[in-house]
Design goal:
single chain; 309 residues; alpha/beta; D-Maltodextrin-Binding Protein, domain 2; five-stranded mixed sheet; 12 helices; 15 strands
Length: 309
Amino acid sequence: MAPPHRTPPRGISDQRSRTAGPTRRSLLAGVAALGALGAAGCSRVATASDVKGGDLLGRLRAQGVARLGIAGEIPFGYIDKNGELTGEAPELAKVIFKRLGVDRVQPVPTEFGSLIPGLASQQFDVVAAGMYINADRCEQVIFSDPDYQMLDAYIVRKGNPLGLHNYRDVVKKKAKFATGTGYAEIAYAVEHGYKEDDILIVPDQVAGLNAVESGRVDVFAGTALTVREVVKKSSKAEATEPFAPLVGGKPHVDGGAFAFRPDETNLRDAFNVELQKLKKSGELLRILKPFGFTEEEMTDLTAKELCGG
């Protein structure tokens, strides 16, 4: 991984917000009550344990449910129009936890920026939000190996009149630049010389599309997956080809994963074993494909690599 830098996405980056449909804010508003009920309906699990590597997996098996921290971001983890938990991370979690002997999962919606604090305070057992792995986060949580990798892409007006294909182009051509709240793309733009105060921060990729279509900005930066999904029905905007941003002068590929409390290495390791089986069998792509993921987003990157160790 490139030298540590502060990149607080996404997820989808982002990253990790991300396809046409309800925004993060509207989804959170709609499921706040569900999250409150879910949290109240399942007693908190103490983190203290005499078992080396933690005994959370055993306790989750006993109670039959794992609580997932989600951030209402399509396609990573959200409540759909029927009130059902879905998204690439929850659907994958359902499969893996079932294999680990935990019959069901339960959503605990929160803001993206509250996921790691919520995990630390035992509001939920695992972060299932497609969270990017970076050095800063690796100091606070432990990650599974990534279940996907992600490049960046831009939303631009049809024909890409300014010829914007990377962050250097944006800076060189003094383009009006936007990205999402907490996205990794903020740090990438700043690293290339764009002034942070000049970046228009919008709630998500849907708002980014609107900003480009209306002419408020020239370009919106997001994950390749969410950008290509959100422009599908637009007659005014298009997605650029995916690209790897430069971090420390080197191309950087992000990877999204599940996050666990630092003392629960047994659960993380067991989760990784099942994840690797899904990768080798090809079932991982089958699970993620309905959410827009392709073979290009499959990865052999490890958490250790992305944490910088």
